[in-house]
Every structure is written in structure tokens, then in C-alpha cells.
Amino acid sequence: MPDICSNPSCSEPGTRTCGACRRAKYCSPSCQRSQWPAHKASCKATSQSNTPKSNCYILHALPQTSNAPVLDHIASQISPINLTSLGNEFAEKRQLEQHLGWHGSIEVGKFYDHLGTDKWYYYAYGDARAFNAKSGLPVNEAAGLVCHKKTVYGDIGIVRSGPMGSSFAEEFSKMELTKAVEFYRTNDKDKVFAQREKSRAMRAFGGMMPGGGAGSVHV
Fold first, then answer.
1. What are the tens digits of pLDDT across the range 73-86?
2. Are 148 and 125 in contact (CB under 8 A)?
3. Residues 175, 51: contact at Cβ < 8 Å?
4. Cβ(17)–Cβ(25) under 8 Å?
């Protein structure tokens, strides 16, 4: 027997499922539209909890779907993997080397997210030849947005990290990472990183910059 429409004022069978939360049922588009103001908050919370998450993602040098413009469809370059040992740089590198066939690995970048946090950042690993133009690896244009150098070669692996003592969720969604990388299409990574580091330092020292002077803010 079909569920009853989720609109409290309706008793018709709910044959249509909300495409976001996949839980609410409606009998018609009109009932779904009229109920949306009341359903919006719970729908968002449920859809976020249902979003697949991983503790590491690969930002591939080439899109995983054919004919996708590289910087217009960054999501097509991102795929999840799960590291069994997290929080130890040596262990993380070894796992990525094994997964991607690298013969060595290096840190290639650190970047903050698109939402303004200064408590943690994304940490990127690359092939040991990631900055070598003679490596024979394909240029990773998307990685160039968030890495230490503008030109990066080969795939990179991305995890979350932060200063000692920081607390953050190790698992995150593909959408979160995609939006963070896309953010740097129009924002300078180095400037954002410096601003967030300054914000974190000021908070740690109670609004005072190390050295005793109050931190200044430039708008």
C-alpha cells in the first residue's frame, strides 16, 4: 500500500518521492510545492546525512568522463578512496603510492575551504615528479588552482588536516571538495591562505598578534 502524501492537509497516496532527501512522499507536484517551506529544513539535513563521504579523494589530471572541459566540470575529475590509516603523513603517502602507482610522493599543496574556516585545511599529495615538466605526466589544471605551483603534473590525493590540536571531520563529500577547488578559480589561493592563517593566529592569541601588537584588518 503506498505511503500517504507528506502534505498534512492531503490524504492521497504519495507516489512521488522527494529527489533530495528520498524520504518525503507526495501525490502531486502541487502538493510538494505547497509543503516545501515546511519540509525545506529537514530535507536539507537528511540529504546531507545521506551524501556519500570519504576521507580521501583523487583529483585526476584528466576528466573521468569524455569531452568534459577541464575547469568547467571539476567534479568529473574527482573520485573517492578510503585510506585505512589517516593522520600519519608517512602512512598516507604509502597508501597513495600503492593506489596510484607512484614510486615516491611529496606534499604539493595546502588550501582552505570555500566557507571561511581557519581551523583545518585540505592537504594534497602528489607524485614525486608532480612539479617536473619532463615527467611525462599530464598537466593537472585543476590541481594548479590549489597547489604550491600553478603547473602540476599527474593525479593528486587530497585529505583533511590541520594544526596540532585542531578538531575536524576527517570524512567529507565530493561536493564539498569540488566547491573548495572551484572557489580558487576566482580567488587567489595564497592570499586566502595568508588571511585564514592570520585569523587563526589572532584567535589563538585572543585577538592579539604574536609579539604583543593587535592585529590590523584591511578591507
1. 899 899 999 999 88
2. no
3. yes
4. yes
